[in-house]
Each structure stands twice: as C-alpha cells, then as structure tokens.
Amino acid sequence: MARHILVVGGTGMLSELVKALAGDGGRLSLLSRRASVVAGADGFDCDYYDEAAFTGALEAAVARSGPVDLAVTWFHTLKIPASRLLAERVQGRLFQVLGSAAVDPAHPGRLQAAARVADGLPHCAVRQVVLGFKVEARGSRWLTNSEISQGVLEAVRADRTSSTIGQTEPWSARP
Ligand SMILES: NC(=O)c1ccc[n+]([C@@H]2O[C@H](COP(=O)([O-])OP(=O)(O)OC[C@H]3O[C@@H](n4cnc5c(N)ncnc54)[C@H](OP(=O)(O)O)[C@@H]3O)[C@@H](O)[C@H]2O)c1
User: Fold this and answer.
1) Which of 11, 19, 163 to mutate for ligand 1's pocket (most ligand atoms within 8 Å of CB)?
2) In the CATH scheme, what architecture does the domain 4-173 have?
3) Which of 44, 63, 97, 112 is the most buried (most CB within 10 A)?
4) Cα dist from 69 to 37, 64, 65, 104, 152, whole Å
5) Binding-site residues, ligand 1, Cβ < 6 A
C-alpha cells in the first residue's frame, strides 16, 4: 500500500479512481484548481500552468503527508515545469495518464519524450497509461470517464509499466 498517493487532475474523469484510492488507507493528496472540493482527500488548489502555485501546492502536500510514493497525473501537456517538479518529489512510481495523441503515428517518440520528465531521477519510476478508444458494432467511440478511471486503477494495481485502455490501433479507426 502506498503511504502517500498524489493525484494531479483527479476532479474530472479520474474521480472514480480517486474514490477507490481514498479507500486504500494511505494519505491522499489532490492537486488541481478545485481540488479542495473533494471529500476524503487533502486538496491543494493550484493551476498547473502557474509554476509558483504548483510548487507551493506540492510542498504543502509533502509537508503534510511525506514523500510521494505513488503519483497519478493527468496533465493536458507535459511541456510545462509542473510535470518535472512533480517527478522530482516522487520516491516511488509516477503514472502518467496520456491522451491518444501520445501514440499518434504521425508524431513518433511522444511516449519516450513524456518519460523524460524523470531523467536523472533514480527514485522516480515512470509508468504510462494511454487513453485509447473502443470499436463497437456501430462504430468507434472515446472512452467513458468510468472506463478511464477503472483502466488506470487496474494499471496501478497491477503495476503495469506501459498499458493502453481500449485500443489505439488501427489509428484510422479512432472516432
Ligand atoms: N482517449 C480518450 O478516450 C480520451 C482522452 C482524453 C480525454 N477524454 C475525455 O475527454 C473529457 C474531457 O477531458 P478533460 O481533460 O476535460 O478531463 P477531466 O479529467 O474531466 O478534466 C481535467 C482535469 O484536470 C484538471 N485541470 C485541468 N486544467 C488544470 C489546470 N490548469 N491546473 C490544474 N488542474 C487542471 C481538472 O481539475 P480542476 O477543474 O479542479 O482544475 C480536472 O481534474 C474527459 O471527460 C474524457 O472522457 C477521452
């Protein structure tokens, strides 16, 4: 069991995941603009585009609950200081939730680029969960929030290094 779990972006599609993790018994910190509205966790309101605010929220979470040994992040982009700032605080596993664009064949190497947030950080082990789509009889569709939360939870519980919820191939079949 992780002693301090920290989730970035846990108030939307990852809400169900957050509820499940809250039942695990460790300390749970949430970072997002409205994180403090969530019951059952320590919420630290911050905008991840605001480096100073994000750093302050991270420091407050670590001061309250200790080093982060499990992080789950849903950032709209990793090209911001926040993703590295968080990796620097992780003493365990960092699960990156990534949109399907991370595996767009027109832009190879995005998964590897995402994992570079932990370059030179021996105590931060990156795991990646890619959000795909579902192909059904009537066509393809994006994942529901529940499928996303359940899929990320499964990846965390099974400690999958790299996984996809739904599918991303064939790329031409995406909704
Ligand atoms: N492949 C797929 O199937 C796929 C991929 C991506 C998205 N989607 C779908 O698209 C929908 C919309 O995606 P979404 O990104 O809006 O997901 P979301 O998870 O519903 O909302 C975004 C999350 O990030 C936080 N957030 C956003 N901007 C932030 C900022 N500047 N600073 C700090 N936290 C921030 C939000 O919290 P606060 O509001 O508290 O800041 C919220 O927790 C999702 O519901 C999902 O179903 C599907």
Assistant:
1) 11
2) 3-Layer(aba) Sandwich (3.40)
3) 97
4) 23, 14, 10, 30, 17
5) 9-14, 32-35, 47-49, 74, 99-100, 131-133, 142-143, 145, 148
Q: What is the pLDDT along the chain (175 residues), one digit of tens a residue?
A: 679 999 999 999 999 999 999 988 899 999 999 999 999 999 999 999 999 999 999 999 999 999 999 999 999 998 999 999 999 999 999 999 999 999 999 999 999 999 999 999 999 999 999 999 999 999 999 999 999 999 999 999 999 999 999 999 999 999 9
Q: What is the pTM of this model?
A: 0.96
Length of the chain: 175
Q: Which residue, 134, 128, 131, is CA-closest to 156?
A: 128
**What ranges make up the beta strands (E) of 67-138?**
68-73, 90-98, 124-131, 133-136
Atom of ligand 1 at shortest range from CA of 48: 32
For the chain, what are the domain ranges? Answer: 4-173
